[in-house]
Automatic annotation (TrEMBL):
GO terms classed as biological process: lipid biosynthetic process
Protein name, UniProt field: Thioesterase
Domain of life, per lineage: Bacteria
Gene3D superfamilies hit by this protein: alpha/beta hydrolase
Source organism: Streptomyces boncukensis
The Thioesterase domain, residue ranges: 24-247
Family: Belongs to the thioesterase family.
SUPFAM superfamilies attached to this UniProt entry: alpha/beta-Hydrolases (SSF53474)
One Pfam family recorded for the sequence: Thioesterase
Amino acid sequence: MTAVQDDIGLWIRRYHPAPDSAIRLLCLPHAGGSASFYFPVSRSLSPTVETLAVQYPGRQDRRSEPNIDDLPTLARGILGALDGWLDKPLALFGHSMGATVGFELARMLEQERGVVPAWLFTSGRRAPSMPRDERIHQESDEGFIAELRRLNGTDGNILGDEEMLRMILPAARSDYRAAETYRYVPGAPLSCPVTAFVGNDDPKVTVAEARAWEQHTTAEFDFHQFDGGHFYLTTHQTQLLKIMADQLRSVSFR
C-alpha cells in the first residue's frame, strides 16, 4: 500500500498528522535512504509524537533534483524548511549519515535560530570528532554495490533489479561522498540531551566511537547498544522506539 503523506513542501513528509501531540520528531535518513524509511516509525509513535521525515534531493519524488554532497549544506537546506515546524518542541533522529546531518542541524538551530532541540538521537554513527578515512564513494559501481549489500541497508529487491539499482546509485554515491568527506569543525557543544544507539557488530562504527557523542553535549547523555550490524534498528525497532518515546515523554512534562 502506498504511504499517504501531507503535501507540505519538498523537504518534509508527514505520514501521520498528529496536531494534538506535544512534541515532534524529525527523522533524517541514512546514505541512499529516503523519507519512506521512517513510515513505520511515524505510524508507531503517532499520535503521541508527530513524526516528520526528511526527503533529501535526488530520490523518489525529488529524483530530478541535483544531489547534495556536502552535509552542512544539506543541513542548511533542511533548516530553511523548518520555519513552520518550530511552534512545538522538536527532537531529531538520524541514522548513519543522518546522525551527522542531525548534529549539524542542531548546531544551526541553536546558534542561528536560538532554538535548542528537545533531543538529539543518533544511530549507527560515530561522533563527529571521531573521523575515519573512508573512500567507498570512489569505488567502481560493482564495489559500491558490494558495500550496499554488505550493510544490508538497501531493499534486496532493488539490489536485484538492474534498472532500479542504476536509478538509486547516483544519490547513494553522492550521500557517501558527503558522509566520507565531512570534517567536523570544533565549536561549542550542544545544549540538548543526546542519546546514542549502536549495533555491537556494526562495521561502520565501534562502541567507543558511538559513546564519544557524549563529548558533544553539555546536557544529559544516554547510550544503548543492541545486537546486530549497521541496520540493527530494523530488527530492534520496538525496543528502540520505546526508549525514544519514554525520553520524549519526559520532555513533555518538563
